From TrEMBL:
Lineage: superkingdom: Eukaryota
Sorted UniProt keywords: Membrane, Transmembrane, Transmembrane helix
Protein name: Tetraspanin 13
Membrane-spanning intervals of the chain: 19-40, 45-68, 74-99
InterPro entries to which the protein is assigned, alphabetical: Tetraspanin/Peripherin
Entries under PANTHER family matching the protein: TETRASPANIN, TETRASPANIN-13
Pfam families named among the record's database cross-references: Tetraspanin
Membrane topology, from the record: Multi-pass membrane protein
Protein localization: Membrane
One cellular component term from this protein's GO annotations in UniProt: membrane
Amino acid sequence: MVCGGFACSKNCLCALNLLYTLVSLLLIGIAAWGIGFGLISSLRVVGVVIAVGIFLFLIALVGLIGAVKHHQVLLFFYMIILLLVFIVQFSVSCACLALNQGQQGQLLEVGWNNTASARNDIQRNLNCCGFRTFNPNETCLASCFKSSRSCVPCAPIIGEYAGEVLRFVGGIGLFFSFTEGPEELC
């Protein structure tokens, strides 16, 4: 059977919105899992991830209902919201991919200096102390500090992870921003 008219775009919208629903539930579940197992103690980070998951879930729900019921007003608002999300997501993805090592280092150092709870999590999970240097008179939750009081600084370890994560997030963001683009044309 040939796909034509609203039937094809309805099926595409339903499939993509079901995918967005699964991604949103995955975001919410991973955030809850991270806080439940003590991997993340920063409530700000978890709150933002859960808020993004809920926002994505609601947008997918609006798109799904609009597509199934062929509700023009819901589809119009869905299209406008997706356009705004596309612009933001595309911009953030490009920024993630465009950051060089120096800019990553500056960004990481600002984050390191502004969040004590994340700093403690990083030192404990990556087994390092301090950002570029460590003062032995300060406290550190890493196991290397507890055993020998000589630890490697966290900046090189975080920098390696940050580069990989930024490339991954930028690529995934570009992928999903381009899956949102064709929906706006329907």
